[in-house]
Amino acid sequence: MPPTGREARLRAMTAKGFTLVEILMVIALLGVMLVAGMPSFQAFITKTRISGATNEFLGDLSYARSEAATRQVEVAICTSADQATCASGGNWANGRIIFVDTNADGAVSVGETVLRVSQPMTGTTVTVSGFGATDILRFRPFGGLRPATAGSFRLCPPAPAAGGEGRQLAVATTGRPLISKVTTCP
Question: Which domains does the chain have, with CATH numbers?
Fold first, then answer.
């Protein structure tokens, strides 16, 4: 015997939607998955920041070297806290200025052309080793460093996340930069 109108409506109403218990189970399961995935997501964000900052820094160094060779003049890249003047003893993570250093004094002087200004890096610490000076690099017209002293920049996560993976940007005396991974950061 076919169901009556009332029975058919009851079957149709019970066949739709989810129960409160089912919805709460799904929400609880999603919460557990989200909490379990958070540490790896934070590590992913940190690695992405370091990688992006390293690539930006590599771009600045390559640009300065290229402009020195193209213009056949000495081009300098220096640390800058205000993105207008070079800072002695500055932090490379605070920003950089690339300019034509016609008088070779290591400062942006009147009449010298500023080629590029880079903004501060977020979520990155930079440690410098080697080089003749730690707050300025000069590229000769043939692309090599002046003075001809190689060095490197180590880009790492800030202190709370220290101990993680970072990047090292080594610059040869020829001016050629090279990126490599660093498994331990200070």
Answer: 43-182 (3.55.40.10)
